[in-house]
């Protein structure tokens, strides 16, 4: 997968050289290019922002540097070029983090992991001039994406989060492929439950023992315990996820665990 990032703080992405993503870059699974937006400015101050039309607080990122950056990285032409790896007509999916975008989810991460080329635009201040997005949509798919109902100083943190979520889903990035299927919110799962608690050696730590069932070697009982804990944790932290559980997918034990956790499994708003 190729990833391009446009930002006014290229140094922010040094984190992509470490851990799993750093290894993926070194082995060629990820081809990451970080671009400084100021390289497409033409004044001595390398200006990327200006006051908003219509008044109001803050500054808006100017369209000219962004337009030139996108034209260079993904030229508005079907001719083969260096940015497309010599492929005719190849275009990236442009992803713009913004509080007003669609929610970023594990399902969306899985969809992005299937893309050959992603281009991330890191906005700052009050955002990027909206004409940049409108023009980009005429020649490439564009997604405006939000990490949640909060505001960051800039898009860099959000882009790092998305790249890590996407990158770990690429074949060969994780040492154990089963780790992906066991994730909370795993793509393709019939239900979304949070993962329960996990343990490793030593068996007793600060007088706190590992639950006996995990030492039993009884795989059926271990699976049941893990599901019980997942149901309890989901009921406590994300009860909104439980309303999507199908009635037919809950056995008597599931219902008992959820009732004990205070979740109204028989309520009318439970999904059918």
Automatic annotation (TrEMBL):
InterPro entries: Alpha/beta_knot_MTases, tRNA_m1G_MeTrfase_C_sf, tRNA_m1G_MeTrfase_TrmD, tRNA_m1G_MTases_N, tRNA_MeTrfase_TRMD/TRM10. The keyword Transferase applies. It is found in: Cytoplasm. Keywords: Cytoplasm, Methyltransferase, S-adenosyl-L-methionine, Transferase, tRNA processing. Residues 1-242 form the tRNA methyltransferase TRMD/TRM10-type domain. Its EC number is 2.1.1.228. It is an enzyme of class 2 (transferase). It catalyses: guanosine(37) in tRNA + S-adenosyl-L-methionine = N(1)-methylguanosine(37) in tRNA + S-adenosyl-L-homocysteine + H(+). S-adenosyl-L-methionine binds at residues 123, 147-152. The keyword tRNA-binding does not apply. Homodimer. HAMAP family: TrmD (MF_00605). Belongs to the RNA methyltransferase TrmD family. Specifically methylates guanosine-37 in various tRNAs. This is tRNA (guanine-N(1)-)-methyltransferase. It comes from Actinomadura meridiana. The lineage of its organism: Bacteria, Bacillati, Actinomycetota, Actinomycetes, Streptosporangiales.
């Amino acid at each position: 997968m190729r990833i391009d990032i446009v930002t006014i703080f290229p140094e922010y992405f040094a984190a992509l050289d470490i851990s799993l993503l750093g290894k993926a870059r070194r082995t060629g699974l990820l081809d990451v290019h970080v671009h400084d937006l100021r390289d497409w400015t033409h004044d001595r101050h390398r200006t990327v922002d200006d006051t908003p039309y219509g008044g109001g607080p803050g500054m808006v990122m100017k369209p000219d540097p962004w337009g030139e950056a996108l034209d260079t990285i993904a030229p508005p032409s079907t001719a083969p070029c260096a940015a497309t790896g010599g492929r005719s007509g190849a275009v990236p999916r442009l992803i713009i983090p913004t509080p007003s975008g669609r929610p970023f989810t594990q399902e969306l991460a899985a969809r992005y992991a299937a893309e050959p080329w992603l281009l991330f635009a890191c906005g700052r201040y009050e955002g990027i001039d909206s004409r940049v997005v409108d023009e980009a949509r005429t020649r490439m798919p564009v997604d405006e994406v939000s990490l949640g109902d909060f505001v960051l100083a800039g898009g860099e943190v959000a882009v790092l989060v998305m790249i890590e979520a996407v990158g770990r889903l690429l074949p060969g990035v994780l040492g154990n492929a089963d780790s992906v299927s066991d994730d909370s919110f795993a793509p393709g799962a019939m239900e979304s439950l949070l993962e329960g608690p996990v343990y490793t050696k030593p068996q007793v730590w600060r007088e706190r023992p590992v639950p006996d069932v995990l030492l039993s070697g009884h795989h059926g009982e271990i699976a049941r315990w893990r599901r019980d804990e997942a149901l309890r944790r989901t009921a406590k932290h994300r009860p909104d996820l439980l309303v999507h559980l199908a009635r037919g997918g809950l056995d008597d034990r599931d219902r008992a665990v959820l009732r004990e956790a205070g979740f109204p499994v028989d309520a009318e708003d439970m999904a059918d």
